[in-house]
Write a structure and sequence with these properties.
It is a single chain. The chain has a single domain, classed as Rossmann fold, CATH 3.40.50.150. The protein has an eight-stranded mixed beta sheet with strand order 3-2-1-4-5-8-6-7. Strand 2, helix 4 and strand 3 form a beta-alpha-beta unit. The protein starts with about 20 loop residues before the first helix and ends with a strand. It has seven helices and eight strands. By secondary structure, the protein is of the alpha/beta class. The chain is globular.
């Protein structure tokens, strides 16, 4: 991991832009709104990945807040912001753990699909469409943003916007593909051609390595607590791993001054 130098600490929260959304990306994902909850459709890889991400998130939250993993209502009293929530695939299981969940997405179509599905499931989740910086949502105990940072206009502005919504003792969970030959072959070529991920979802040039993202977080006054790979094998499918060549997930907190 790359450590921040003293000169890196000059970045301030007032550098945040109100225009992190890439409109072409938002339109692409909005067009897929009706397919998000089809586990056998074009979002099948997300459905396979979701339990793996949830396992990491639950472990990170248990450790950070001293929670009991056996408690099915462990997140009661905690506020969660899921940024780039899509149709709510992550929001819903977090809400079932007792959290007060807010989901924000660039595409109104996704928010409509998320609200409709949550109502059918009997879940109360606060959904908002549009730029996060314009929502006036306040601060949260937990922020999640899964496979989003590689789709925004300016990753640093996006990180600074996320930071503004963190309580001082909060935790943030991020995941994103690594920029490697393996991710290009498996995510961009194979997964999209086989229909496991919608065509045009990934731009390999926008992927960030763990070192690049870690430095960006350090420059923003944040620090990485833990990082794991999200790997794939023919025998075991998607799983948490020390191998970060394909994708990785991390827990982050504010750096103490």
């Amino acid at each position: 991991m790359v450590k921040a130098s003293k000169s890196d600490d000059i970045l301030q929260d007032n550098h945040v832009s109100n225009d992190t959304i890439n409109q072409e990306e938002a339109a692409h994902f909005g067009a897929l709104a009706s397919q998000w909850w089809d586990a056998k459709g074009s979002s099948s890889m997300l459905h396979a990945l979701n339990p793996v991400r949830l396992a990491y998130i639950r472990g990170a939250l248990d450790e950070h807040f001293g929670l009991d993993y056996r408690n099915r209502n462990a997140l009661s009293g905690k506020s969660i912001l899921d940024v780039g929530c899509g149709a709510g695939l992550l929001c819903e299981p977090l809400a079932r753990l007792g959290a007060a969940v807010t989901g924000v997405d660039a595409a109104p179509e996704n928010i409509h699909a998320a609200q409709s599905h949550a109502e059918k499931m009997g879940l109360t989740i606060h959904y908002k469409a549009g730029e996060l910086a314009q929502q006036n949502l306040g601060k949260f105990d937990i922020i999640t943003s899964m496979e989003v940072i590689e789709h925004v206009n300016d990753p640093m502005d996006f990180i600074l916007t996320l930071k503004q919504h963190l309580h001082d003792d909060a935790i943030m969970l991020l995941s994103t593909p690594n920029r490697t030959i393996q991710s290009k072959i498996l995510l961009v070529e194979a997964a999209e051609r086989l229909g496991k991920v919608p065509r045009g979802t990934h731009d390999h040039d926008k992927f960030m390595t763990p070192d690049e993202l870690t430095k960006m977080l350090n420059d923003a006054g944040l620090c990485v607590i833990n990082m794991r790979g999200l790997a794939y094998s023919v025998l075991d499918g998607l799983q948490l791993s020390d191998d970060m060549q394909l994708n990785y997930i991390m827990s982050v907190k504010k750096r103490k001054t």
